[in-house]
Specification:
By secondary structure, the chain is α+β, with helices and mostly antiparallel strands. It has a single domain, classed as 4-Layer Sandwich (Deoxyribonuclease I, Chain A), CATH 3.60.10.10. It is built from 7 helices and 12 strands. A hairpin with a 2-residue loop joins strand 6 and strand 7. Helix 3 runs parallel beside helix 4. The protein is globular, with a radius of gyration of 17 Å. The two termini are 14 Å apart. The model has no long low-confidence stretch (mean pLDDT 96). The structure holds one DNA strand of 18 nucleotides.
Amino acid sequence: MARARSLTLATFNVNGINSRLPHLLDWLAEAQPDIVALQELKAADAAFPAAAIEAAGYGALWHGQASWNGVALLARDAVPVESRRGLPGEPKDTQARYLEAAAHGLVVGALYLPNGNPQPGPKFDYKLRWMARLARHARSLVDLPHPVALIGDFNVIPEDRDVYDPKAWKRDALIQPEVRAAWEELLAQGWTDALREVFEDEVVYTFWDYFRRHAERDRGLRLDHLLLNPVLAEGLQEVGVDRWVRLQDKASDHAPTWARVRLPTTRRRA
DNA sequence: ATGTCATCAACTTGATGA
């Protein structure tokens, strides 16, 4: 009988991988997550600090882009096996926002969903199209017989309790009814929102903007999400937000957000 | 309207995205 394995899945929007490298390395050493999705690398492929990350004990895949966007997947003591780079459905889309790989017995889609501001406008239209593409692809993953997670910066405030002041964000792309409806449709496929599942009615934030000392005052938003397919959600044990990372000097505006899961034991053949 | 921070292009500051 194989022993059940537990592992930690995390997502962290670093807001510039090179300007944030010391913070990232400190956090990796402290938290020791098994699988990490990074967003907003803001670096071309050649500028990704692969050597430093490898020295920290992590194999990495990255999909970089100069100046904007950029996503990566790290696996502790393993090299993730890439299964997809970019979402299907819009061949001319060159923005680096989706990377998918297998590692430690899971398939993980790492995503950086478009912000969509200002709305209305072409950026908001792109966000909605991207969400439709994500839902279509997610549909092909949710019912697989092995564990699958979609994790990253979704740039979606799911409910009013996920923002310190819903009125202040009323006109923002992150909170629009179309965006929330797309989020709900995605969840209705069978995905579990890990943080909400464990925190239940409790308020929890993963992002605090740089204005008005919002981080110190805990005036935040919940934007970084971990969606688990049913096979994986069954093993959900614990979740957390490493807010201490956000409170450091020169921090990213997001904090690392994680879920601890127990992997199902491999089914034996009859 | 404002607030802050990172990046880039083109020069020490401004435009852009978030």
